[in-house]
Specification:
Low-confidence stretches: none
CATH architecture: 3-Layer(aba) Sandwich
Order of helices and strands: HEHEHEHEHEHEHHH
Largest sheet: 6 strands, parallel
Number of strands: 6
Structural class: alpha/beta
CATH topology: Rossmann fold
Oligomer: single chain
Helix content: 40-55%
Strand content: 5-15%
Radius of gyration: 18 Å
CATH superfamily: Glycogen Phosphorylase B
Length: 235
């Protein structure tokens, strides 16, 4: 499993604690080239996920509006995802579209729909800051661990601003690889995002810290060796 939040859930469901081992999901680091981010004519934000409530995409849209009203920088948001492969207008997709209209940010928000993974990573290199506003949904749905895309994003060298949801704090080190704010606190999300936008000089340092953290803790080759040792002990 990805981290202690998911570990706790399994134990609460009745799994004996001594049988629960945290083993993170890793990435093939050779697929992700590090690239320090630096500002250009506009600041490009990225959020990614299926259009379901737990991904918290409307929070990213509201944060964009708040930031845009407080900075002279040109800021854009790219949303990668959809309700499904057929793009059905679900309640959450409607909520996202309504948020774009409510905050009058349609001219600076792009929704790509579903795209191949390789295209997602290519787009990531064109962006400066990643947002991960995951929340507990009204029906109790949650990330469980953390979105795996965060590992990949850090590997590319992009800073992250995220809610402290489930196991996200296990991968986003507050003030080092990005910023964490209380879940659902859009004021704090916008404030930390604005700080990053106005201090681009810290992006490369955060990016290097993120890459180093992934190399140390989420390298799939190292994790595979560790998994083999777990199985050997069990046998």
């Amino acid at each position: 499993m990805e981290g202690p939040a998911m570990q706790k859930k399994l134990i609460e469901l009745g799994c004996p604690s001594e049988k629960v081992i945290v083993h993170p999901i890793g990435v093939k680091l050779g697929r992700y080239m590090f690239r320090a981010r630096k500002p250009d004519s506009e600041i490009r934000l990225l959020v990614c996920g299926r259009f379901v409530e737990k991904k918290g995409i409307p929070y990213a849209i509201e944060a964009l509006k708040r930031v845009a009203s407080k900075t002279k920088a040109s800021v854009r948001l790219t949303i990668v995802g959809d309700s499904g492969s057929d793009g059905t207008l679900t309640d959450e997709k409607r909520n996202i579209l309504n948020s774009i209209e409510k905050y009058k940010v349609g001219d600076v928000v792009t929704i790509t729909g579903y795209i191949p993974h390789d295209e997602l990573i290519r787009i990531a290199y064109e962006h400066h800051i990643f947002l991960a506003p995951s929340v507990h949904a009204s029906d109790g749905d949650a990330e469980g661990g953390f979105p795996v895309i965060l590992t990949e994003i850090l590997a590319t060298g992009m800073p992250v601003v995220a809610f402290d949801h489930c196991d996200i704090p296990e991968i986003i080190q507050n003030g080092t690889t990005g910023f964490l704010v209380p879940e659902g606190d859009v004021d704090a999300l916008a404030e930390r995002l604005l700080y990053l936008i106005e201090h681009p000089e810290i992006w490369p340092e955060m990016g290097r810290a993120g890459r180093a953290f992934v190399e140390a803790n989420y390298d799939i080759d190292k994790l595979n060796d560790r998994l083999v040792e777990i199985y050997r002990k069990l046998l």
